[in-house]
Amino acid sequence: MFGRDIGIDLGTANVLIHIKGQGIVLDEPSVVAMDRRSGDVMAVGEEAFRMVGRTPGNIIATRPMKDGVIADFDQTEAMLNHFLVKVNAKSMMSKPRILICCPTNITSVEQKAIIEAAEKSGSKNVFIEEEPKVAAVGAGMDIFQPSGNMVVDIGGGTTDVAVLSMGSVVTANSIKTAGDQFDLDILNYIKKSYKLLIGDRTAEMVKKEVATVAPNGANREMEIRGRDMVNGLPRTITINSQEIYEALTESVNHIVHAAKNVLEQTPPELSADIIDRGVILTGGGALLHGIDELLGDELGVPVIIAEEPMNCVANGTGIILENLDKMANKKVKI
Hints:
Elements: E1 5-10, E2 14-19, E3 23-29, E4 32-35, E5 41-44, H1 46-49, E6 59-62, E7 65-66, E8 69-70, H2 73-86, E9 97-102, H3 108-120, E10 125-130, H4 131-138, E11 149-154, E12 159-165, E13 168-175, H5 179-194, E14 196-197, H6 200-209, E15 221-228, E16 234-240, H7 241-264, H8 268-277, E17 279-282, H9 291-299, E18 303-305, H10 312-322
Parallel strand pairs: 1-9, 9-10, 11-17, 17-18
Antiparallel strand pairs: 1-2, 2-3, 4-5, 4-6, 7-8, 11-12, 12-13, 14-15, 15-16
Helix pairs in contact: 2-3, 4-10, 5-6, 5-7, 7-9
């Protein structure tokens, strides 16, 4: 039996695995829970995510990926290994070929770390492809034509902005302002304004439920619980969309500037195409209320949220895997 081709969206917040002919077979948080004393892996993915902020002193639940690159090599390897076993990728007689996505400004050292982790978890050939390019393909854009396509991929650790034409990146920018930074902004705002400590999971819930980045956007309210910084006791407060709008303004402006910088460096003919076609938003950050409206106003071009924005990169790996043999020259040698 032949090894299967596997596409991996190795994200800071989530790992998605696409198997050729089957589609997306795994979507789990990029979290590993380890025993501090023995160094043993206790749980990975969804199970480990449920432990975040709730573990006893001897167990630590962490994310091995930070800002789109590997922060802890051993944990990343253990996580990849666990997920590949879970989807039966390693039960094949021959080792699978793996396509992994990375941010556009990744260094060769960081690239090697990703390839090494994948090879150690049992891959025959590892291919690296730039995230915005794969996201654009997964969003249904025909990037292989001689015309300009622009994609803004807002993930957990990085936001990648790119203009693509003829199957390649023409201009690109990658910044470390994305979903995780939004969570941190919310956490810090509540700490400063209400003297209340909340966890990462609560901040993420606030982002999903009530956050907006449109000036006159949604006006929702939500009750959240945390620990009072003055007396140390549990306390409940109510926050609204307008407060979160203020908390996120600075970070969202960084994304707007990154998109403007890419447009400013784009050849005029391709800029004209982008005015016609618009900008495609992908990644989990595309679901942030009002982000399409804000970017559209600031850039002066139509901004469209992709269908299933969180799955675009994984779906894109599937499409590229179909043409993997044509891309053999993309393999990075160690």
